[in-house]
Amino acid sequence: MKKYYYWIILAALIIVLILLPKPLIVSPTVSTIITVLLGLALAGVLVLTLRGHMIGRRTVFLFIGVSLTLPFFMNYRMPIKVSPEVQTLYDAIAKLPPGSKVLAAFDYDPPSAPELQPQAEAFMAFAFKHNLKVIIMGLWPQGPQQADMAVTKVLQEPEIRAKNLRYGVDYVNLGFQSGNEFVIQRMGTSFSGMFPRDIYNTDYDKIPLLNGVENFSNIDFVFNLSSGQPGTVEWVQIAVDRYGVKLGAGNTAVQAPSVYPYLSSRRLTGLAGGMTGAAEFEQATKEIGKANTYILSQSFSHMVVIAFIIIGNAALFVGYRKSKQKGA
Amino acid sequence: MDSTLIGTWLAALLTLGIMSFIYKDNLYYKICEAIFIGVSAGYWFITYFWDSLYRIAWIGIVHEGRYVLLGGVILGAMMLTRLFGKIGWIARWPLAFIVGATAGLKMMVYFTTNAMAQIHDTVYDTVTAFGGGDLYNLIGRLVILLGTVTGLVYFYFSKEHKGLFGGVAKVGTWFLMITFGASFGYTVMSRMSLLLGRIDFLLTDWLKLVK
Amino acid sequence: MKREIPLIITFVAGVAFVLQYFIPHYPFNRFENIFSDWFSIVGAFAIWLGALSLMKLCLLNISKKSSDWPISLLIIVSFLAIVIAGAIDGFHGLNNVPATSFRDPGTNFDWLYQKVYTPLSSTMFAILAFFVASASYRAFRARNTAATLLLFSAFFVMIGRVPVGDYLSGWLPERMQLSHWANWLMAFPNTAGQRAVMIGIALGTVSTSLRIILGIERSHLEG
Question: Does some domain include residue C221?
Fold first, then answer.
């Protein structure tokens, strides 16, 4: 087929997608049919692989794309059970009395936003509804900007808008500071030493919320959203172990397994790991958002990956049997 | 034309450009990649300027008279000599400062938190579990103790892994494989989540096919 | 002198942070504060060095008219676009009453962050999902006990950490359900392995840091 035909097909597909009626949601019956068809397609891949025809990588990519995209149009909802570590995190935040000062450390960038932004929004909504005072900062340059996006979105909720929250009184954004773990180290003795001004260059002493907040001893809880280094590990090593801070964390799924030792030793008070953790945290705080929408697609994609692993290994075992028979 | 609409279409075209790489490397992808490299470098450049150099150094020195910060500025300026071949050796001084400071801090925090505290908690939690009356917790703590000890035995490469020592190391290998399997599972979850975010943008914000 | 002074600087900086860990009082805390501030500033210059090195490389490519010089030109144009936008928005923000930030919604910098930087950086990492799936199909084989353990562990985590695991095993008692197995696996065997790795890395970090501070390890001064 000539190369420009592919561009024509792609352009036609995009035009059709733009002209389709919106929003496009299919009925549960159609959702079930789509699921069964996907299963049959995977069965077809299994048969081909067992016959010795390994499917091309682009076919695998197509399966992944389809398994992630189609659930957006489906009307399935699966109940989400809150895991013990997320429950611990929620309980720690829910126990904070109104007026408590919470330091929210945003240590992630846009690639990690699908996993961590829902957690940020759920946390900020919960904090504002329960009159917690939030001090935002970041060890990553993009962190405070992601925080701004979460705050802007959450402030539009009617219940929160009615509270007439004021910047500098109910929440403040100290911004980003370079220095990684040295920032945490310095904050242990003096917040104003590392953040002499907020993101609007207002002096630390002139911000009402920060009156009396000298260092970690004046903070009731630290909530860290982290996707790498510097992040939760550095907060545990310095803020928790040296300065005795109470820390809860939301991590990307890549990082979450490696902080379980801190969770087990109770240096970390709760952990929301990955998209599932985000969905569970939304359930626990009752701030249902994007993570709950994504979880169906997440489930489908996991099943497809598991299917491919099983198919690949089935081919391996069939190959072993054939070589044994040849040997015999 | 409203800037939000232009911005959404630009973001969608850039997203599709990067995604085109999964078909094969092409000029569209290369253009998007070049824009990404330039914009990333520029983003970090200007952010560090305003947040660190202006907010800490400039205001601290010029407006607050904290002249001790000049030391940092001089070291930082020495770092930039790396761009000039002949005097590039001067950049070793600030680099030595960064490496030394990091080594000093990391040595202490890693030793206390990642080594001593973890060893303490492994033993303490196991001992307290015996008196706790919760069988589930006790078995779990014993698993942690066994896995930690055997895993550390595996990492001891100064002795050949033979006999009883080799057997213990093998058990350690099994625990490490379970750990890596869990990490792999979580990595798959994470990568799928990242792709989900992009697909959500294309379907919701660009094509408006779903709410 | 070219080698000795950096070694002395490394030693002084390292020892300052070790001492303040044990003696957080004057004058050691003062040294810690000063060095932490210097670290932030030097760190910013290090980022500047990286960005300017990239620009130097691109300018060299353009001047030599190498085969990909248009790509280098595009990199420089993109770099300048966001730097100029951030600079102008920043200076305007200083003069506004009340002051605004260069990052505020509505600024050109924020527009470039939301519409250019975010989609590009997010998609770069997002396409890894395809390659992870393809690698799982082609390379993830249970050839021996260790690989089989790895496979089963990944299987339990992938299926147990999403609601479909409970959907499939909901009819079983709670402690037999897939989510419970996944939670148990993460809380105990995974923690054990991670702890062993963590302790091993910590001991390695301590020895390497000591070597660096004492000047035995000098690789950071090469070049």
Answer: no
Residue A4's CB is within 10 A of a number of other CB atoms, namely: 8
The answer to whether residue B140 is domain-embedded is: yes
Model confidence over A236-286: pLDDT tens digits? Answer: 999 999 999 999 999 999 999 999 999 999 999 999 999 999 999 999 999
Q: What is the predicted pLDDT for the residue at A49?
A: 87
For domain A84-288, is the CATH number 3.40.50? yes
**CA–CA separation, C119 and C126 (whole Å):** 10
Residues A276-314 pLDDT 10s: 999 999 999 999 999 998 999 999 999 999 999 999 998
Name chain A's partners: 3 or more CB pairs within 8 A: B, C
Assign A167 to helix, strand or coil: strand
Same domain, C51 and C1: yes
Residue A72 corresponds to which tokens in the numbers above? 């957006």
B89-105 residue pLDDT tens: 899 999 999 999 999 99
| Residue C109 belongs to domain spanning | 67-126
Looking at beta carbons, which residues of chain C come within 8 Å of B100? 9-14, 212-213
Q: Which of C34, C111, C137 to mutate to test the interface with A (most CBs of A within 10 A)?
A: C137
Count interface pairs A-C at CB distance under 8 A. Answer: 165
For the purposes of burial, counting CB atoms within 10 Å of the CB of C144, is it exposed (0-12), middle (13-18) or buried (19 or more)?
exposed
- pLDDT band at C223, cuts 50/70/90? low
Q: How far apart are CA B55 and CA A215, in angstroms?
A: 20
Q: Which of residues 167-206 of B touch A (CB under 8 A)?
A: 179, 182-183, 186-190, 192-197, 199-200, 203
* C-alpha distance from A18 to closest chain B C-alpha (Å): 6
Q: Do A275 and B189 touch (CB under 8 A)?
A: yes
SS3 A103: strand
Domain spans of chain A, in order of start: 3-76+293-327, 84-288
pLDDT in tens, C179-196: 999 999 999 999 999 999
C161 shares its domain with C187: yes
- For residue B169, being part of any structural domain is answered with yes
pLDDT in tens, B146-193: 999 999 999 999 999 999 999 999 999 999 999 999 999 999 999 999
- Phi first, then psi: what are they for A219, rounded to 5°? -110, 135
Residue B201 pLDDT greater than 60, yes or no: yes
Which strand ranges, in their side-by-side order, compose the sheet holding A247-251? Answer: A171-176, A133-138, A101-107, A221-226, A247-251, A271-273
Nearest CA in chain C to B185: C154
Q: Is the pLDDT of residue C105 over 90?
A: no
Residues of B in contact with C200 (CB under 8 A): 151-152, 155
pTM over 0.95: no
Q: Do C100 and A63 touch (CB under 8 A)?
A: no
Residue bearing tokens 């990239």: C54
**C223 in a domain, yes or no?**
no
Decide if C169 is inside a domain: yes
Position C24 scores a pLDDT of 86
**How many domains does the structure of chain B reveal?**
1
Q: Given an 8 Å threshold on Cβ–Cβ distance, is C163 in contact with A182?
A: no
**Window C:164-183, CB contacts with B under 8 Å:** none
Domain count of the fold of chain C? 3
Full domain range(s) for residue B172: 132-211
pLDDT at residue number A25: 82
Last residue of a domain, one of C20, C42, C64: C64
Does C123 lie at the interface with B, CB-CB under 8 angstroms? yes
Q: Pick from A18, A113, A201: which is nearest to B197 by CB?
A: A113
Phi and psi, residue A178, nearest 5°: -80, 155
CA distance A140 to A228: 10
- pLDDT of A328 strictly over 70: no
Task: Give the CA angle between residues A305, A225, A255 to the nearest 5°.
Answer: 40
Contacts of A175 in chain C (CB under 8 A): 101
